[in-house]
Amino acid sequence: MVNPKAEGQVSSDTCVLDELMSPYGGLNEARRRLVMRDNWASRWTAAWQMNGSEVVWPVRDLGSVPVLSSTPVRGFTWRTKQQHRPGLEFLVSTGRKHGFESLEERAALLALDFMTVIEVLPQPFALTFEHVDGHASHIPDFLAVLGDGGHWLLDIRPAGLVGVLDAVKFAASREAAAACGWRYSVITGWRPHVLSGLDALSAQRRPMTDQLGCQPALLEAAADGPVTFGELVQATRFPAVGRTHAVHLLWHRRLGFDLGRPLDDSSLVWPAGWTELR
Q1: Which of 140, 137, 156, 167 is CA-nearest to residue 67?
Q2: Which of 80, 185, 209, 237 is deepest in the core (most CB within 10 A)?
Q3: What's the superkingdom here (predicted)?
Q4: pLDDT reported for residue 278
Q5: For 203-219, how does the pLDDT look when each residue is reduced to its tens digit (9 = 90+)?
């Protein structure tokens, strides 16, 4: 049998966000336009909303901000004829809804939910910084708090819509994040089939009861290594119900498959953490 975890494939049970997204590649060039001298991390500031009031920290102190006590610095608006699509997305990871300002941001929230984040803060702060043409400000799209306690600052922008000043703002956000030990990325898109795969799995991400014992049967059927999705669900007493539980297990990463390919009956499915040498 061909190893389903061959190079270039995306194992859904072990993948990280970097493997799913297409990052923006022009940050190093844009960084040259930043003014980063004379104790810049003390002059650059980040304004947060705390308990209904604006609180400003120098970038050097961002690591000490009680981020979980903050609220978005910019509100979400809905109106007719607007060109973007805002809304609210429920995340199983946090147990509540989170705001987004575009369908691209909604896709990022879905991917973060799959990564089992602890918290996602939209529009977390307003960064003010210096560049060669003066001062500018930028509000990053999301700050994700990860399961290991780390923080990941994110901007979401399709590659063709990143202008020159946008790139400078993104470069400044990366420097601000690095100053306090956070990660930073600009997501410009996703690997083929990733979004359609996550969207399909998300239909069964909420808690489920298993009165028919489908999940133990599915885990046992896959215990010795890869089987096709079609064969897997046939191992349950009621395959139609088994499909629903198989998708649930895939979302919660107790089973894995190649997210870089469409999920169908021929897709290979394996137990979480499976390796060819097991």
Answers
A1: 140
A2: 185
A3: Bacteria
A4: 39
A5: 999 999 999 999 999 99
Q: For the chain, what are the domain ranges? A: 33-190, 194-271
Per-residue pLDDT tens over the stretch 171-204: 999 999 999 999 999 999 999 999 999 999 999 9
For the record, the structure tokens of 137 come out as 């400000």
Pick the CATH number of 33-190 from 3.20.20.60, 3.40.1350.10, 3.40.640.10, 3.40.50.720: 3.40.1350.10
Tell if the pTM clears 0.90, that is, is over it.
Answer: yes
Residues in the chain, how many?
A: 278
Determine the Cα–Cα distance for residues 94 and 41; give it in Å rounded to an integer: 32
Using DSSP, state whether 23 is helix, strand or coil.
strand
Q: Which residues contact 9 (CB under 8 A, 6 or more apart)?
A: 258, 260, 261
Structure tokens at 162: 């990143």
Which residue is it, tokens 């004829």? 81
Q: Tokens 């107790």 map to which residue?
A: 254
